[in-house]
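In the laboratory, one determines a bound structure by crystallizing the protein with its ligand and collecting diffraction data. In a computational setting the workflow is compressed into a single prediction: the sequence and the ligand go in, and a structural description comes out. We illustrate the idea with fe (ii) ion.
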Amino acid sequence: MSWIDLATHPIEDVGYRSACAQRLDAAGALVLEGFFTNAFVDRVLAESAGRELDGFFASSTHNVWLTPPNEQLEDDHIYNRQIVSTKGLLADDQVPAESPLRAVYDSDIFRSFIADVVGEAAVHPYADALSSVNVHFHRDGEELGWHFDNSSFAVTTLIQPPESGGVFEYVKDLRNAEADDQNFSGVQAAIDTRTGVETLEFSPTDLVLFRGRNSMHRVTPSRGNRTRILVVLAFNTEPNIGLSDSAKETFYGRT
Ligand SMILES: O=C(O)CCC(=O)C(=O)O
Ligand SMILES: [Fe+2]
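The predicted complex, in structure-token form:
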């Protein structure tokens, strides 16, 4: 496949897969530099640039957990803290059929590579028409606020960096969702005093794999006239999973 630099990143190689898995486990994030070819980035940029206005920009706020408020807790409890996100996105059904994003996302070798790196038997697309491949846009001043992902991992690649800002910040293993340990005090300290906040650097052509379920993260406001464009390739560890209508309404503004 001409969209991936297979000489540098031999994704069929068992040893390469396990080395990537070890790096992901140790750091909570894995950046594979120069994973995609320049031709891939050029094509995705050409088909995405200028499509900001087709995208959905949510106008509401959310909490770090991406859930409705908990009425049992005070309004000023960290669980009910309202966070601003202003970025926009194209949903899967707005990504062209002939896009290199589809060739990569649908590739068996790519999927089995991702599955091995994240330690799953297989990874599957979303069963709905919106969630699998998304293109995010951050114009001047737009940001993605602090949150934990619903999915256990995310695969992203930056297509166009902003002139400045747009920094990916995270706090590794801040909560333990599997044990339902939400670590409210740690979340509050990270947001209010930046305790434990680290940054992850990545550039166009890099593949980023990130365990966002337990590592809280955000993207700081973009600055300048060049829109930050980033692709999210979303997978599930079980087949036939789709977002609920209310989640679709929140993330895409439609069902
Ligand atoms: O824009 C990014 O780099 C991260 C995106 C992200 O965290 C998300 O889509 O949940
Ligand atoms: Fe996220």
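The CA atoms of residues 120 and 237 lie 7 Å apart. Keep in mind that any predicted model is a hypothesis to be tested, not a measurement.
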